[in-house]
């Protein structure tokens, strides 16, 4: 079955780093761009970063320069390296490919 599974969330202090992983079914990973979204408490879901099959990346202005999205085709995995984390980055992070969504992983940035 088609699946997207996120991992790597957790609790970090401001200024810290986390690396999120999204492992997707080959049928999705090999065909579609993979996106990272996040939804913070009381906020609407927003697109954080995206990467195409060819490696072209895009980022929300709020994370540009701090987050890096990459993909490892051999592992069917997309990563989101998050550096210089801020409390405003606190959210549930979801990976998405085509119409498929993972369950999300919680990122909490707090002192």
Summarize the structure.
The chain is mainly beta. The chain has one helix at residues 26-29; strands at residues 4-7, 10-12, 18-24, 34-39, 46-51, 57-59, 67-72, 77-82, 91-97, 100-101, 105-109. The model has no long low-confidence stretch (mean pLDDT 95).
Mind explaining what this structure looks like?
The protein is mostly beta strands and about 110 residues long. Helices cover about 5% and strands about 50% of the residues. Strands 2, 4, 5, 6, 9, 10 and 11 form a seven-stranded mixed β-sheet that branches. Strands 1-3-8-7 form a four-stranded antiparallel β-sheet. The longest helix is centred in the first third of the chain and has 4 residues, at about 25-30. The radius of gyration is 13 Å and the shape is globular. The chain starts with a strand and ends with a strand. The mean pLDDT is about 95.
Q: Could you name the ranges where pLDDT drops below 50 across 5 or more consecutive residues?
A: none
Main beta sheet, described? 7 strands, mixed
Helix content: under 10%
Helix/strand class: mainly beta
Query: Rg from C-alpha positions?
Result: 13 Å
Task: Classify the beta-strand content into a percent band.
Answer: over 45%
Mean pLDDT: 95
Please provide the ordered H/E string of secondary-structure elements.
EEEHEEEEEEEE
Overall number of strands: 11
Distance linking N and C termini: 40 Å
Apparent shape: globular
Please, how many helices? 1
Q: What characteristics describe this protein?
A:
111 residues; 11 strands; mainly beta; 4% helix
């Amino acid at each position: 079955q088609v699946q997207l599974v996120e991992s790597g969330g957790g609790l970090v202090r401001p200024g810290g780093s986390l690396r999120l992983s999204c492992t997707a079914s080959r049928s999705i990973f090999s065909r579609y761009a993979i996106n990272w979204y996040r939804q913070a408490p009381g906020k609407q879901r927003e697109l954080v970063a995206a990467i195409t099959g060819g490696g072209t990346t895009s980022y929300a202005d709020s994370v540009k320069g701090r987050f890096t999205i990459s993909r490892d085709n051999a592992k069917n995995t997309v990563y989101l390296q998050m550096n210089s984390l801020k409390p405003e980055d606190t959210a549930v992070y979801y990976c998405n490919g085509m119409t498929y969504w993972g369950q999300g992983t919680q990122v909490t940035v707090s002192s």
